[in-house]
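CO-FOLDING WORKSHEET

Operator: S.A.
Ligand of interest: shikimate-3-phosphate
Run index: 179
Mode: holo prediction, single chain
Checklist:
[x] sequence pasted
[x] SMILES validated
[ ] output reviewed
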Amino acid sequence: MNPAPNLVLIGPMGAGKTSIGRKLAARLGLDFVDCDHRLEERTGTSVPVIFECEGEAGFRARETALIAEVMQGQGQLVATGGGAVLAEENRRRLRERGFIVYLQVSVPQQLERLARDRSRPLLAGPDKQARLEALAQQRGPVYAALADLAFDADGLAVATAADRLQALLETRWQRTEAA
Ligand SMILES: Nc1ncnc2c1ncn2[C@@H]1O[C@H](COP(=O)(O)OP(=O)(O)O)[C@@H](O)[C@H]1O
Ligand SMILES: O=C(O)C1=C[C@@H](OP(=O)(O)O)[C@@H](O)[C@H](O)C1
Ligand SMILES: [Mg+2]
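OUTPUT RECEIVED:
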């Protein structure tokens, strides 16, 4: 049983961090924070426009500042963006005050879910499959090393995944009050 004041979802694009996270947060009575959505609220624009105006580096700087702020809180389910784990500072902050769940998904399933997606600038190129495979190779080991729990979300409906995760978390995560 790992104690932590927040629950954190990590994993690749299309794993369901946002959709499963929203449902699971409601079931567990946690405040739902989606990092990308909060950045969009703050900036008044979309993730693709942030990438366009400030580059990926600008987006990552905003993401890091947001994670530092959000992880000071408690009683939250924090859905990260797929690249949030790249920065050591983010990994440290997520770990310090979060029980971390890695949502795993296969590239074919990502392709199915994201075929018509226009909101993810990293998938804007012509070959989505090659891009997703390269990202999986680079980031898969980082997700695995950071996680307290890995959960295979492949082929599961959002509600089913949320049900199963809720049951697993009962024996794995102890929600604590932070100092
Ligand atoms: N378990 C699932 N079953 C079916 N569709 C899903 C599932 N999880 C996510 N999706 C769909 O895939 C897309 C990406 O999901 P999202 O929750 O935004 O993933 P992430 O935040 O991990 O990138 C959305 O259109 C969502 O409705
Ligand atoms: O994998 C990534 O680097 C990104 C994933 C996106 O979030 P989701 O994982 O929720 O799609 C979003 O943060 C941005 O487009 C970059
Ligand atoms: Mg998301």
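REVIEW:
The pocket of adenosine-5'-diphosphate (ligand 1) is lined by residues 11, 13-19, 113, 153, 156-158, 161 (CB under 6 Å).
The chain has a mean pLDDT of 96.
[x] output reviewed
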